[in-house]
Design goal:
Layout: E1 34-35, E2 42-43, H1 46-57, H2 60-66, E3 69-79, E4 85-95, E5 104-110, E6 115-121, E7 124-129, E8 132-134, H3 138-149, H4 152-156, E9 164-173, E10 176-184, E11 190-196, E12 202-210, E13 216-229, E14 232-242, E15 245-257
Antiparallel strand pairs: 1-2, 3-4, 3-15, 4-5, 5-6, 6-7, 7-8, 9-10, 10-11, 11-12, 12-13, 13-14, 14-15
């Protein structure tokens, strides 16, 4: 059985925010990195970096077992082109599949004027309102599928999804030392991840997506307020930008893993 590599810590100072302390980790043998003869710097492969990230987030077996079922509640704030906010409460229930396409997800949203659900299963998305099924608008479908595949989970489950990794290199932005890793999935969707070389947390990701009837848009998704949840690690605040403009912010109130979720809530009602 192969050992899971762990990158050596670069800074032993305590983290600035107590609430962002990572959960208890499983110790593993250190990686034997190669040396760059020209600069004398330690070099790691993309796989070594990402496997270490997975260990920090809860280990592959831990994530698969603990996060097989879950319920998440919080608030979503969307901003229109004029910057005006629209807030909704949401409840997200899911059953983890063998890969992202086989996940089952139901998001119930409550706005001031209406309530509706978006349900994802077997790689398809449909909606439910007042007990009746409906087909969401094309832009809503594209946005939901895009958010699902350009995510932290896509990197943590890259092996299960058959994705490939490429190490772009190291970077420094706003005083942060970063590993930059590209992921390409089997549908040729590409996501670039910016990973702290100090904490091995995913700080943000970037991707481009074509909007129906319009040009490609550059999306940036930032992950903030990390907290330990049942021996795993999760961001409680996520901010989405479209071409540099903030379009959405999600704030998690509660996350509970391990709660049995019934398959029936993902069933489409008969016509």
């Amino acid at each position: 059985m192969l050992s899971v590599p762990v990158l050596p810590a670069q800074d032993k100072k305590p983290q600035e925010k107590p609430q962002e302390a990572k959960p208890q980790e499983t110790k593993a043998p250190e990686v034997k990195p190669q040396k760059d003869n020209k600069q004398g710097e330690t070099k790691y492969t993309a796989e070594q970096i990402v496997e270490s990230v997975i260990l920090i987030y809860g280990t592959r077996p831990g994530l698969e077992h603990i996060r097989r079922y879950g319920v998440e509640r919080g608030k979503i704030t969307r901003f229109n082109a004029e910057g005006n906010p629209e807030e909704a409460n949401y409840e997200r229930r899911f059953i983890r599949g063998e890969n992202l396409d086989k996940d089952k997800i139901r998001v119930d949203q409550r706005l001031p004027t209406m309530e509706y659900s978006l349900i994802f299963g077997e790689g398809k998305l449909w909606g439910l309102i007042n007990g009746a099924a409906f087909t969401p608008r094309q832009d809503a479908i594209v946005n939901f599928i895009s958010q699902h595949h350009h995510s932290i989970d896509s990197l943590l489950r890259y092996k299960e999804c058959g994705s490939t990794l490429t190490l772009v290199g190291k970077d420094q932005q706003k005083g942060l030392d970063l590993y930059v890793v590209d992921l390409t999935d089997k549908e040729n969707r590409k996501t670039r991840y910016y990973i702290s070389s100090k904490t091995l947390r995913i700080l943000w990701l970037e991707y481009e997506e074509g909007i129906p009837g319009g040009p490609a848009v550059k999306f940036t998704k930032k992950f903030l307020d990390y907290r330990p949840v049942q021996q795993t690690l999760a961001p409680y605040r996520t901010v989405l930008f479209e071409d540099g403009r903030q379009s959405q912010e999600t704030r998690v109130m509660t996350i509970t893993y391990g709660i049995k979720v019934s398959d029936s809530i993902f069933n489409r009602p008969e016509a």
